[in-house]
Amino acid sequence: MEWFWTILVMLGMVAAAITGIVLFQRFMSRPGAHEDMATMGGALSGLDEVFNPHAANARLEREEQSRQRAPIPSPGDLPKGVIFEMDDDGVPTKVVLRVSGLCGDTQPVDGHKCGCPPGPVGTQR
Questions:
Q1: Helices 53-67 and 33-51, interaxial angle, to 10°?
Q2: pTM exceeding the 0.70 threshold for the entire prediction
Q3: Which of 36, 39, 98, 125 could form a disulfide with 81 if both were Cys (CB 3.0 to 4.6 A apart)?
């Protein structure tokens, strides 16, 4: 009759596991439930450092890179194809954007003559 109690305990453990899985699924399906999981992930990240140090180092590197700010370009570093025309006092008067690939050379967007046959600006000739 000892086997009866063993089977009864095993069935109870299976029923408890199924009930736990169903309750966890219902908990996770409600709105905002995934926010609570972030706290648990942070608490368990200490185990990562002990059992998988390379993954912990990679996580720290990702966090550090996400906190870094993008470098600010200096005023002299203009994107390719952008030209400022200045007057005699050094005050910018006009910005010219140049598009490459037109007429086999670089041509201003505002329709500046480059020796190409007439046509709308921005089309391949």
A1: 130
A2: no
A3: 98
